[in-house]
Amino acid sequence: MSSLSAKHIGSGLASRLDDPDLFFPFAYVGGGAIEAASRATLGVTDPASGTVLGHIPSLDADESRHAIDVAEESFPAWSALLPQERSAILRRWYELIVEAREDLARIMTAEQGKPISEARGEIDYTASFVEFYAEEAKRPNIESVTSHLPNAEVELWREPAGVAALITPWNFPAAMITRKAAAAMAAGCTCLVHPSSETPFSATALAVLAGRAGVPAGVFNVVTGRAPIIVEPWTADARVRVLSFTGSTEIGRLLYRQSAGTIKKLVMELGGHAPFIVFADADLDHAVEEAVKAKFATSGQDCLGANRFYIERRLYDAFCARFAEVTAALSVGPGETDPDIGPLMNARAIDKQIEHVEDALAKGARCLTGGKRGAQGDLFFQPTVLADVPDTALIMAEETFGPVAALTPFDSEEDVVARANATEYGLIAYLHTRDPRRIYRVSRQLQFGMLAVNRTKITGAPIPFGGFKQSGLGREGARLGLEEFTEVKYVCRDWGS
Ligand code: NAP
User: Fold this and answer.
1) Which residues form the domain of 287?
2) 179-195: b or e for each residue (b if 16 or more CB lie within 10 Å)?
3) Are 192 and 315 contained in the same domain?
4) Do residues 479 and 442 both lie within one domain?
5) pTM tops 0.85
6) 269 an active-site residue?
Protein backbone atom coordinates (compact mmCIF):
# COMPACT_ATOMS: atom_id res chain seq x y z
CA MET A 1 0.00 0.00 0.00
CA SER A 2 2.76 2.47 0.85
CA SER A 3 4.40 2.42 -2.59
CA LEU A 4 0.99 2.76 -4.22
CA SER A 5 0.22 5.69 -1.94
CA ALA A 6 3.05 7.60 -3.58
CA LYS A 7 0.51 8.36 -6.31
CA HIS A 8 -1.22 10.76 -3.92
CA ILE A 9 1.77 13.05 -3.99
CA GLY A 10 1.17 15.94 -6.32
CA SER A 11 -2.57 15.43 -6.47
CA GLY A 12 -4.26 18.83 -6.23
CA LEU A 13 -7.46 17.28 -4.97
CA ALA A 14 -5.72 15.42 -2.11
CA SER A 15 -4.06 18.64 -0.96
CA ARG A 16 -7.51 20.28 -0.65
CA LEU A 17 -8.70 17.63 1.84
CA ASP A 18 -8.36 17.63 5.63
CA ASP A 19 -7.68 13.90 5.29
CA PRO A 20 -5.66 13.48 2.04
CA ASP A 21 -5.91 9.68 2.22
CA LEU A 22 -9.58 9.97 1.25
CA PHE A 23 -8.38 10.74 -2.25
CA PHE A 24 -7.82 7.11 -3.23
CA PRO A 25 -6.99 6.69 -6.92
CA PHE A 26 -7.13 2.88 -6.93
CA ALA A 27 -9.63 0.09 -7.19
CA TYR A 28 -10.45 -1.43 -3.80
CA VAL A 29 -10.66 -5.21 -3.79
CA GLY A 30 -10.16 -7.60 -0.88
CA GLY A 31 -9.66 -4.70 1.51
CA GLY A 32 -6.74 -3.11 -0.32
CA ALA A 33 -5.64 -0.91 -3.20
CA ILE A 34 -5.47 -2.53 -6.62
CA GLU A 35 -3.90 -1.28 -9.83
CA ALA A 36 -4.39 -2.86 -13.25
CA ALA A 37 -1.63 -5.35 -14.05
CA SER A 38 -1.40 -3.57 -17.40
CA ARG A 39 -1.02 -0.23 -15.54
CA ALA A 40 -3.89 1.08 -17.73
CA THR A 41 -5.81 3.99 -16.20
CA LEU A 42 -8.75 6.28 -16.98
CA GLY A 43 -8.56 10.04 -16.41
CA VAL A 44 -11.09 11.83 -14.21
CA THR A 45 -11.75 15.51 -14.85
CA ASP A 46 -13.37 18.42 -13.06
CA PRO A 47 -16.32 19.36 -15.30
CA ALA A 48 -16.16 23.01 -14.22
CA SER A 49 -12.61 23.59 -15.42
CA GLY A 50 -11.66 20.54 -17.49
CA THR A 51 -8.66 19.99 -15.15
CA VAL A 52 -7.56 16.38 -14.74
CA LEU A 53 -8.11 15.46 -11.09
CA GLY A 54 -6.39 12.10 -11.25
CA HIS A 55 -6.55 8.63 -12.77
CA ILE A 56 -8.15 5.38 -11.72
CA PRO A 57 -7.09 1.87 -12.71
CA SER A 58 -8.76 0.43 -15.76
CA LEU A 59 -9.02 -3.21 -14.73
CA ASP A 60 -9.51 -5.96 -17.30
CA ALA A 61 -12.07 -8.78 -17.45
CA ASP A 62 -9.84 -11.25 -15.56
CA GLU A 63 -9.28 -8.72 -12.80
CA SER A 64 -13.03 -8.15 -12.66
CA ARG A 65 -13.60 -11.92 -12.39
CA HIS A 66 -11.02 -12.06 -9.61
CA ALA A 67 -13.14 -9.56 -7.66
CA ILE A 68 -16.05 -12.05 -7.84
CA ASP A 69 -13.76 -14.72 -6.32
CA VAL A 70 -12.91 -12.33 -3.50
CA ALA A 71 -16.54 -11.39 -2.81
CA GLU A 72 -17.61 -15.05 -2.99
CA GLU A 73 -14.88 -16.12 -0.53
CA SER A 74 -15.92 -13.38 1.90
CA PHE A 75 -19.60 -14.29 1.80
CA PRO A 76 -19.77 -17.24 4.26
CA ALA A 77 -18.10 -15.39 7.14
CA TRP A 78 -19.97 -12.11 6.56
CA SER A 79 -23.36 -13.75 6.23
CA ALA A 80 -22.70 -15.87 9.34
CA LEU A 81 -22.05 -12.87 11.59
CA LEU A 82 -24.73 -12.09 14.09
CA PRO A 83 -26.99 -9.35 12.69
CA GLN A 84 -25.92 -7.20 15.65
CA GLU A 85 -22.27 -7.55 14.58
CA ARG A 86 -23.02 -6.47 11.00
CA SER A 87 -25.10 -3.65 12.41
CA ALA A 88 -22.23 -2.37 14.59
CA ILE A 89 -19.84 -2.30 11.62
CA LEU A 90 -22.35 -0.44 9.45
CA ARG A 91 -22.99 1.99 12.29
CA ARG A 92 -19.26 2.72 12.50
CA TRP A 93 -19.15 3.27 8.71
CA TYR A 94 -22.03 5.73 9.09
CA GLU A 95 -20.16 7.66 11.82
CA LEU A 96 -17.02 7.90 9.72
CA ILE A 97 -18.99 9.17 6.70
CA VAL A 98 -20.55 11.86 8.90
CA GLU A 99 -17.12 12.84 10.28
CA ALA A 100 -15.67 13.05 6.76
CA ARG A 101 -18.66 15.03 5.40
CA GLU A 102 -16.71 18.06 4.25
CA ASP A 103 -13.95 16.11 2.49
CA LEU A 104 -16.45 13.78 0.80
CA ALA A 105 -18.43 16.82 -0.40
CA ARG A 106 -15.23 18.43 -1.75
CA ILE A 107 -14.36 15.26 -3.68
CA MET A 108 -17.88 15.09 -5.09
CA THR A 109 -17.98 18.71 -6.18
CA ALA A 110 -14.56 18.35 -7.81
CA GLU A 111 -15.44 15.31 -9.91
CA GLN A 112 -19.20 15.76 -10.40
CA GLY A 113 -19.49 19.55 -10.46
CA LYS A 114 -22.52 19.90 -8.19
CA PRO A 115 -22.76 22.99 -5.97
CA ILE A 116 -20.98 22.33 -2.67
CA SER A 117 -24.19 22.77 -0.61
CA GLU A 118 -25.85 20.07 -2.71
CA ALA A 119 -22.79 17.85 -2.31
CA ARG A 120 -23.00 18.22 1.49
CA GLY A 121 -26.69 17.36 1.26
CA GLU A 122 -25.86 14.26 -0.76
CA ILE A 123 -23.32 13.13 1.85
CA ASP A 124 -26.03 13.44 4.52
CA TYR A 125 -28.31 11.37 2.28
CA THR A 126 -25.47 8.87 1.71
CA ALA A 127 -24.93 8.48 5.45
CA SER A 128 -28.65 8.16 6.14
CA PHE A 129 -28.87 4.88 4.21
CA VAL A 130 -25.99 3.39 6.18
CA GLU A 131 -27.57 4.47 9.45
CA PHE A 132 -31.00 3.17 8.44
CA TYR A 133 -29.71 -0.25 7.32
CA ALA A 134 -27.46 -0.54 10.39
CA GLU A 135 -30.72 -0.49 12.34
CA GLU A 136 -32.69 -2.61 9.88
CA ALA A 137 -29.99 -5.33 9.97
CA LYS A 138 -31.14 -6.22 13.47
CA ARG A 139 -34.84 -6.70 12.78
CA PRO A 140 -36.15 -10.24 13.11
CA ASN A 141 -36.76 -11.78 9.72
CA ILE A 142 -38.54 -15.02 10.42
CA GLU A 143 -42.23 -15.13 9.73
CA SER A 144 -44.49 -17.83 11.06
CA VAL A 145 -47.40 -18.71 8.81
CA THR A 146 -50.64 -20.34 9.92
CA SER A 147 -50.24 -23.85 8.56
CA HIS A 148 -52.50 -25.12 5.80
CA LEU A 149 -51.28 -28.71 6.42
CA PRO A 150 -52.08 -31.08 9.30
CA ASN A 151 -49.35 -31.63 11.91
CA ALA A 152 -47.02 -29.11 10.28
CA GLU A 153 -45.27 -25.88 11.26
CA VAL A 154 -44.68 -23.39 8.50
CA GLU A 155 -42.00 -20.70 8.54
CA LEU A 156 -40.52 -18.27 6.04
CA TRP A 157 -36.85 -17.38 6.42
CA ARG A 158 -35.10 -14.56 4.64
CA GLU A 159 -31.54 -15.47 3.72
CA PRO A 160 -28.86 -13.33 2.06
CA ALA A 161 -28.85 -13.96 -1.68
CA GLY A 162 -25.03 -14.05 -2.11
CA VAL A 163 -22.70 -11.79 -4.06
CA ALA A 164 -24.39 -8.58 -5.25
CA ALA A 165 -23.20 -6.50 -8.22
CA LEU A 166 -23.99 -2.79 -7.80
CA ILE A 167 -23.63 -0.42 -10.75
CA THR A 168 -24.10 3.29 -10.10
CA PRO A 169 -24.30 6.54 -12.09
CA TRP A 170 -22.42 9.85 -11.87
CA ASN A 171 -25.26 12.16 -10.87
CA PHE A 172 -25.36 10.89 -7.26
CA PRO A 173 -21.87 9.39 -6.96
CA ALA A 174 -22.08 8.50 -3.25
CA ALA A 175 -25.74 8.09 -2.27
CA MET A 176 -26.56 5.62 -5.04
CA ILE A 177 -23.77 3.41 -3.68
CA THR A 178 -24.86 3.32 -0.04
CA ARG A 179 -28.56 3.03 -0.96
CA LYS A 180 -27.62 -0.33 -2.48
CA ALA A 181 -24.55 -1.45 -0.53
CA ALA A 182 -25.81 -0.75 3.00
CA ALA A 183 -29.00 -2.71 2.25
CA ALA A 184 -27.05 -5.58 0.70
CA MET A 185 -24.50 -5.70 3.53
CA ALA A 186 -27.21 -5.51 6.20
CA ALA A 187 -28.86 -8.51 4.55
CA GLY A 188 -25.54 -10.41 4.69
CA CYS A 189 -24.47 -10.07 1.06
CA THR A 190 -21.02 -9.10 -0.18
CA CYS A 191 -20.71 -6.37 -2.82
CA LEU A 192 -19.01 -5.62 -6.09
CA VAL A 193 -19.45 -1.94 -6.93
CA HIS A 194 -18.82 -0.45 -10.35
CA PRO A 195 -19.07 3.34 -9.97
CA SER A 196 -19.37 5.57 -12.98
CA SER A 197 -15.92 6.15 -14.45
CA GLU A 198 -16.70 9.88 -14.46
CA THR A 199 -17.03 9.98 -10.63
CA PRO A 200 -15.04 7.10 -9.12
CA PHE A 201 -13.28 9.00 -6.34
CA SER A 202 -16.47 9.38 -4.28
CA ALA A 203 -16.77 5.59 -4.39
CA THR A 204 -13.17 4.84 -3.47
CA ALA A 205 -13.34 7.35 -0.57
CA LEU A 206 -16.34 5.41 0.76
CA ALA A 207 -14.27 2.22 0.44
CA VAL A 208 -11.44 3.72 2.51
CA LEU A 209 -13.96 4.60 5.22
CA ALA A 210 -15.53 1.13 5.03
CA GLY A 211 -12.08 -0.38 5.64
CA ARG A 212 -11.51 1.91 8.63
CA ALA A 213 -14.96 1.01 9.99
CA GLY A 214 -13.98 -2.65 10.12
CA VAL A 215 -15.88 -3.92 7.09
CA PRO A 216 -14.00 -7.19 6.53
CA ALA A 217 -11.81 -7.54 3.45
CA GLY A 218 -13.78 -8.62 0.39
CA VAL A 219 -17.21 -7.53 1.64
CA PHE A 220 -17.25 -4.12 -0.10
CA ASN A 221 -15.21 -3.97 -3.30
CA VAL A 222 -14.96 -1.09 -5.78
CA VAL A 223 -13.98 -2.27 -9.24
CA THR A 224 -12.94 0.53 -11.59
CA GLY A 225 -12.49 0.49 -15.34
CA ARG A 226 -14.51 0.55 -18.54
CA ALA A 227 -18.06 -0.45 -17.65
CA PRO A 228 -18.71 -3.08 -20.35
CA ILE A 229 -15.40 -4.83 -19.56
CA ILE A 230 -16.00 -4.84 -15.80
CA VAL A 231 -19.71 -5.67 -15.77
CA GLU A 232 -20.04 -8.32 -18.48
CA PRO A 233 -18.12 -10.93 -16.39
CA TRP A 234 -20.50 -10.20 -13.51
CA THR A 235 -23.68 -10.68 -15.54
CA ALA A 236 -22.25 -13.92 -17.00
CA ASP A 237 -21.22 -15.41 -13.65
CA ALA A 238 -23.81 -17.50 -11.79
CA ARG A 239 -22.14 -16.73 -8.45
CA VAL A 240 -23.38 -13.14 -8.71
CA ARG A 241 -26.95 -13.56 -7.49
CA VAL A 242 -28.25 -9.99 -7.52
CA LEU A 243 -27.59 -7.19 -9.96
CA SER A 244 -28.71 -3.76 -8.80
CA PHE A 245 -28.33 -1.02 -11.36
CA THR A 246 -29.04 2.71 -11.32
CA GLY A 247 -28.65 4.50 -14.61
CA SER A 248 -30.27 4.99 -17.96
CA THR A 249 -33.14 2.84 -19.22
CA GLU A 250 -31.03 2.02 -22.28
CA ILE A 251 -28.21 0.42 -20.25
CA GLY A 252 -30.81 -1.14 -17.93
CA ARG A 253 -32.30 -3.00 -20.90
CA LEU A 254 -28.83 -4.20 -21.91
CA LEU A 255 -28.04 -5.53 -18.42
CA TYR A 256 -31.49 -7.17 -18.20
CA ARG A 257 -30.67 -9.09 -21.40
CA GLN A 258 -27.13 -9.89 -20.26
CA SER A 259 -28.43 -11.24 -16.93
CA ALA A 260 -30.92 -13.61 -18.52
CA GLY A 261 -28.36 -16.40 -18.91
CA THR A 262 -27.83 -16.65 -15.16
CA ILE A 263 -31.38 -15.67 -14.05
CA LYS A 264 -30.27 -13.04 -11.57
CA LYS A 265 -32.45 -11.13 -9.19
CA LEU A 266 -32.59 -7.63 -10.66
CA VAL A 267 -33.13 -4.23 -9.14
CA MET A 268 -33.24 -1.40 -11.64
CA GLU A 269 -33.57 2.30 -10.92
CA LEU A 270 -33.74 3.79 -14.40
CA GLY A 271 -34.67 6.98 -16.15
CA GLY A 272 -37.48 9.36 -15.27
CA HIS A 273 -39.42 11.94 -17.27
CA ALA A 274 -41.41 13.58 -14.54
CA PRO A 275 -44.56 15.61 -15.22
CA PHE A 276 -45.15 18.64 -12.98
CA ILE A 277 -48.88 19.40 -12.95
CA VAL A 278 -50.27 22.67 -11.59
CA PHE A 279 -54.02 23.26 -11.32
CA ALA A 280 -55.36 26.83 -11.29
CA ASP A 281 -56.37 26.59 -7.61
CA ALA A 282 -52.75 26.03 -6.51
CA ASP A 283 -50.77 28.60 -4.55
CA LEU A 284 -48.80 30.23 -7.38
CA ASP A 285 -45.74 31.34 -5.39
CA HIS A 286 -45.41 27.99 -3.66
CA ALA A 287 -45.87 26.06 -6.91
CA VAL A 288 -43.17 28.13 -8.62
CA GLU A 289 -40.78 27.70 -5.69
CA GLU A 290 -41.27 23.93 -5.78
CA ALA A 291 -41.04 23.86 -9.60
CA VAL A 292 -37.63 25.52 -9.45
CA LYS A 293 -36.43 22.86 -7.01
CA ALA A 294 -37.93 20.05 -9.09
CA LYS A 295 -36.25 21.29 -12.27
CA PHE A 296 -32.89 22.70 -11.25
CA ALA A 297 -31.63 20.56 -8.34
CA THR A 298 -28.42 18.75 -9.33
CA SER A 299 -28.23 21.26 -12.20
CA GLY A 300 -31.17 19.45 -13.78
CA GLN A 301 -29.28 16.13 -13.88
CA ASP A 302 -31.61 14.24 -11.61
CA CYS A 303 -33.75 11.20 -12.38
CA LEU A 304 -36.46 12.93 -10.29
CA GLY A 305 -36.07 16.14 -12.27
CA ALA A 306 -39.31 17.60 -13.65
CA ASN A 307 -39.03 17.72 -17.43
CA ARG A 308 -42.49 18.75 -18.58
CA PHE A 309 -44.69 21.29 -16.84
CA TYR A 310 -48.45 21.13 -17.41
CA ILE A 311 -50.17 24.29 -16.15
CA GLU A 312 -53.95 24.77 -16.17
CA ARG A 313 -54.76 27.46 -18.74
CA ARG A 314 -56.25 29.98 -16.29
CA LEU A 315 -52.93 30.11 -14.40
CA TYR A 316 -50.65 29.53 -17.39
CA ASP A 317 -49.53 33.08 -18.24
CA ALA A 318 -48.97 34.02 -14.60
CA PHE A 319 -47.03 30.81 -13.93
CA CYS A 320 -44.86 31.23 -17.06
CA ALA A 321 -43.98 34.82 -16.14
CA ARG A 322 -43.16 34.06 -12.49
CA PHE A 323 -41.23 30.85 -13.24
CA ALA A 324 -39.16 32.59 -15.94
CA GLU A 325 -38.41 35.50 -13.59
CA VAL A 326 -37.16 33.23 -10.78
CA THR A 327 -35.20 31.04 -13.22
CA ALA A 328 -33.46 34.04 -14.80
CA ALA A 329 -32.19 35.03 -11.35
CA LEU A 330 -30.51 31.66 -10.66
CA SER A 331 -26.73 31.82 -10.37
CA VAL A 332 -24.47 29.62 -12.51
CA GLY A 333 -20.84 28.79 -11.79
CA PRO A 334 -18.29 26.23 -10.57
CA GLY A 335 -19.67 24.04 -7.78
CA GLU A 336 -17.07 25.19 -5.24
CA THR A 337 -18.47 28.76 -5.42
CA ASP A 338 -21.86 27.32 -4.36
CA PRO A 339 -24.04 28.63 -7.18
CA ASP A 340 -27.61 27.47 -7.85
CA ILE A 341 -26.46 25.62 -10.95
CA GLY A 342 -23.09 24.02 -11.73
CA PRO A 343 -21.62 22.55 -14.89
CA LEU A 344 -23.13 19.57 -16.68
CA MET A 345 -21.25 16.28 -16.66
CA ASN A 346 -19.95 16.09 -20.19
CA ALA A 347 -20.20 17.40 -23.75
CA ARG A 348 -22.98 14.90 -24.59
CA ALA A 349 -25.15 16.55 -21.95
CA ILE A 350 -24.61 20.00 -23.49
CA ASP A 351 -25.42 18.63 -26.96
CA LYS A 352 -28.69 17.24 -25.61
CA GLN A 353 -29.76 20.60 -24.15
CA ILE A 354 -29.08 22.29 -27.48
CA GLU A 355 -30.92 19.58 -29.41
CA HIS A 356 -33.99 19.79 -27.14
CA VAL A 357 -34.11 23.60 -27.20
CA GLU A 358 -33.65 23.87 -30.99
CA ASP A 359 -36.21 21.16 -31.65
CA ALA A 360 -38.81 22.79 -29.40
CA LEU A 361 -38.26 26.25 -30.93
CA ALA A 362 -38.53 24.81 -34.43
CA LYS A 363 -41.88 23.28 -33.43
CA GLY A 364 -43.30 26.60 -32.22
CA ALA A 365 -42.14 26.97 -28.59
CA ARG A 366 -41.07 30.35 -27.17
CA CYS A 367 -37.89 30.80 -25.11
CA LEU A 368 -38.70 32.91 -22.02
CA THR A 369 -35.18 32.86 -20.56
CA GLY A 370 -31.82 31.16 -21.24
CA GLY A 371 -31.59 28.78 -24.17
CA LYS A 372 -27.83 28.96 -24.74
CA ARG A 373 -24.50 27.67 -23.48
CA GLY A 374 -23.27 29.43 -20.34
CA ALA A 375 -20.36 31.84 -20.52
CA GLN A 376 -18.65 30.16 -17.51
CA GLY A 377 -17.03 27.32 -19.48
CA ASP A 378 -17.56 24.52 -22.00
CA LEU A 379 -19.92 22.48 -19.81
CA PHE A 380 -22.23 25.23 -18.57
CA PHE A 381 -25.76 25.78 -19.87
CA GLN A 382 -28.08 28.67 -19.02
CA PRO A 383 -31.15 27.82 -16.94
CA THR A 384 -33.86 27.83 -19.57
CA VAL A 385 -37.64 28.12 -19.69
CA LEU A 386 -39.53 27.23 -22.86
CA ALA A 387 -43.26 28.02 -23.13
CA ASP A 388 -45.97 26.65 -25.48
CA VAL A 389 -43.96 23.49 -26.10
CA PRO A 390 -46.01 21.08 -28.23
CA ASP A 391 -46.41 17.44 -27.20
CA THR A 392 -44.56 16.45 -30.38
CA ALA A 393 -41.30 18.09 -29.18
CA LEU A 394 -38.44 15.77 -28.17
CA ILE A 395 -38.31 17.32 -24.71
CA MET A 396 -41.89 16.13 -24.10
CA ALA A 397 -40.85 12.53 -24.81
CA GLU A 398 -37.25 12.15 -23.53
CA GLU A 399 -35.29 12.87 -20.38
CA THR A 400 -33.42 16.16 -20.95
CA PHE A 401 -31.15 15.72 -17.92
CA GLY A 402 -30.20 19.37 -17.77
CA PRO A 403 -31.50 22.83 -16.83
CA VAL A 404 -34.20 23.20 -19.49
CA ALA A 405 -37.89 23.36 -18.50
CA ALA A 406 -40.72 22.84 -21.01
CA LEU A 407 -44.12 24.42 -20.21
CA THR A 408 -47.48 23.77 -21.82
CA PRO A 409 -51.10 24.60 -20.89
CA PHE A 410 -53.91 22.09 -20.24
CA ASP A 411 -57.68 22.43 -20.12
CA SER A 412 -59.05 19.49 -18.14
CA GLU A 413 -58.10 16.93 -15.52
CA GLU A 414 -58.73 14.10 -17.98
CA ASP A 415 -56.50 15.70 -20.60
CA VAL A 416 -53.55 16.31 -18.25
CA VAL A 417 -53.66 12.82 -16.72
CA ALA A 418 -53.62 11.25 -20.19
CA ARG A 419 -50.68 13.42 -21.31
CA ALA A 420 -48.72 12.83 -18.10
CA ASN A 421 -49.14 9.05 -18.45
CA ALA A 422 -48.26 8.98 -22.17
CA THR A 423 -44.66 7.87 -21.59
CA GLU A 424 -42.64 4.70 -21.13
CA TYR A 425 -41.32 6.19 -17.86
CA GLY A 426 -43.06 6.11 -14.48
CA LEU A 427 -40.66 7.24 -11.76
CA ILE A 428 -42.20 10.33 -10.14
CA ALA A 429 -44.97 12.87 -10.79
CA TYR A 430 -45.51 16.23 -9.12
CA LEU A 431 -48.99 17.60 -8.49
CA HIS A 432 -50.10 21.03 -7.21
CA THR A 433 -53.71 21.70 -6.25
CA ARG A 434 -55.61 22.62 -3.08
CA ASP A 435 -58.60 20.37 -3.81
CA PRO A 436 -58.37 17.17 -1.70
CA ARG A 437 -60.82 15.24 -3.88
CA ARG A 438 -58.79 16.09 -6.97
CA ILE A 439 -55.59 15.06 -5.18
CA TYR A 440 -57.14 11.67 -4.52
CA ARG A 441 -58.57 11.19 -8.03
CA VAL A 442 -55.44 12.28 -9.89
CA SER A 443 -53.08 10.38 -7.55
CA ARG A 444 -55.05 7.21 -8.25
CA GLN A 445 -54.77 7.69 -12.02
CA LEU A 446 -51.12 8.71 -12.41
CA GLN A 447 -48.95 5.72 -13.34
CA PHE A 448 -45.83 6.57 -11.35
CA GLY A 449 -43.98 4.87 -8.49
CA MET A 450 -43.80 8.09 -6.47
CA LEU A 451 -46.13 11.08 -6.20
CA ALA A 452 -45.12 14.41 -4.70
CA VAL A 453 -48.21 16.48 -3.88
CA ASN A 454 -47.71 20.19 -3.16
CA ARG A 455 -44.02 19.63 -2.45
CA THR A 456 -40.84 18.50 -4.19
CA LYS A 457 -38.44 16.79 -1.77
CA ILE A 458 -39.96 13.48 -0.75
CA THR A 459 -37.13 10.93 -0.72
CA GLY A 460 -35.26 9.49 2.25
CA ALA A 461 -33.94 6.20 3.61
CA PRO A 462 -37.27 5.02 5.13
CA ILE A 463 -39.30 5.24 1.91
CA PRO A 464 -39.34 2.77 -1.01
CA PHE A 465 -37.79 4.52 -4.00
CA GLY A 466 -38.59 3.20 -7.45
CA GLY A 467 -40.61 3.48 -10.60
CA PHE A 468 -43.39 1.93 -12.65
CA LYS A 469 -43.06 0.80 -16.27
CA GLN A 470 -39.61 1.26 -17.83
CA SER A 471 -38.35 3.38 -14.95
CA GLY A 472 -37.33 0.24 -13.17
CA LEU A 473 -37.79 -2.93 -11.18
CA GLY A 474 -37.89 -3.37 -7.42
CA ARG A 475 -37.42 -0.74 -4.73
CA GLU A 476 -34.51 0.81 -2.84
CA GLY A 477 -34.66 2.23 0.66
CA ALA A 478 -37.04 1.05 3.39
CA ARG A 479 -37.38 -2.57 4.43
CA LEU A 480 -38.20 -3.46 0.81
CA GLY A 481 -34.72 -2.33 -0.27
CA LEU A 482 -33.10 -4.88 2.04
CA GLU A 483 -35.45 -7.66 0.97
CA GLU A 484 -34.27 -7.28 -2.64
CA PHE A 485 -30.96 -8.80 -1.47
CA THR A 486 -32.55 -11.85 0.14
CA GLU A 487 -34.09 -15.13 -0.89
CA VAL A 488 -37.19 -16.45 0.86
CA LYS A 489 -36.86 -19.97 2.17
CA TYR A 490 -40.08 -21.80 3.04
CA VAL A 491 -39.58 -24.40 5.76
CA CYS A 492 -42.34 -26.90 6.57
CA ARG A 493 -41.72 -29.12 9.62
CA ASP A 494 -43.86 -32.18 10.30
CA TRP A 495 -44.12 -33.05 13.99
CA GLY A 496 -45.83 -36.39 13.37
CA SER A 497 -49.38 -37.38 14.21
P1 NAP B 1 -25.62 5.23 -17.69
O2 NAP B 1 -24.88 5.72 -18.86
O3 NAP B 1 -26.70 4.25 -17.87
O4 NAP B 1 -24.51 4.71 -16.66
C5 NAP B 1 -24.83 4.19 -15.39
C6 NAP B 1 -23.80 3.19 -14.97
O7 NAP B 1 -23.77 2.13 -15.93
C8 NAP B 1 -22.38 3.73 -14.89
O9 NAP B 1 -21.70 3.08 -13.84
C10 NAP B 1 -21.80 3.31 -16.22
O11 NAP B 1 -20.40 3.20 -16.15
C12 NAP B 1 -22.45 1.96 -16.40
N13 NAP B 1 -22.49 1.48 -17.78
C14 NAP B 1 -22.45 2.21 -18.91
N15 NAP B 1 -22.45 1.39 -19.99
C16 NAP B 1 -22.46 0.13 -19.52
C17 NAP B 1 -22.44 -1.15 -20.14
N18 NAP B 1 -22.41 -1.30 -21.47
N19 NAP B 1 -22.45 -2.24 -19.35
C20 NAP B 1 -22.47 -2.11 -18.02
N21 NAP B 1 -22.49 -0.93 -17.37
C22 NAP B 1 -22.50 0.19 -18.11
O23 NAP B 1 -26.31 6.42 -16.89
P24 NAP B 1 -25.68 7.78 -16.43
O25 NAP B 1 -25.60 8.65 -17.63
O26 NAP B 1 -24.45 7.53 -15.62
O27 NAP B 1 -26.79 8.29 -15.41
C28 NAP B 1 -27.91 8.98 -15.81
C29 NAP B 1 -29.13 8.08 -15.88
O30 NAP B 1 -29.34 7.47 -14.61
C31 NAP B 1 -30.40 8.86 -16.16
O32 NAP B 1 -31.18 8.16 -17.08
C33 NAP B 1 -31.09 8.91 -14.80
O34 NAP B 1 -32.48 9.08 -14.87
C35 NAP B 1 -30.71 7.60 -14.21
N36 NAP B 1 -30.80 7.64 -12.75
C37 NAP B 1 -31.82 6.95 -12.17
C38 NAP B 1 -31.95 6.98 -10.79
C39 NAP B 1 -33.05 6.22 -10.12
O40 NAP B 1 -32.95 5.98 -8.93
N41 NAP B 1 -34.10 5.83 -10.83
C42 NAP B 1 -31.04 7.69 -10.00
C43 NAP B 1 -30.02 8.38 -10.64
C44 NAP B 1 -29.91 8.33 -12.02
P45 NAP B 1 -19.42 4.26 -16.85
O46 NAP B 1 -19.78 5.60 -16.29
O47 NAP B 1 -18.09 3.81 -16.41
O48 NAP B 1 -19.67 4.18 -18.33
Assistant:
1) 274-461
2) bbbbbbbbbbbbbbbbb
3) no
4) no
5) yes
6) yes
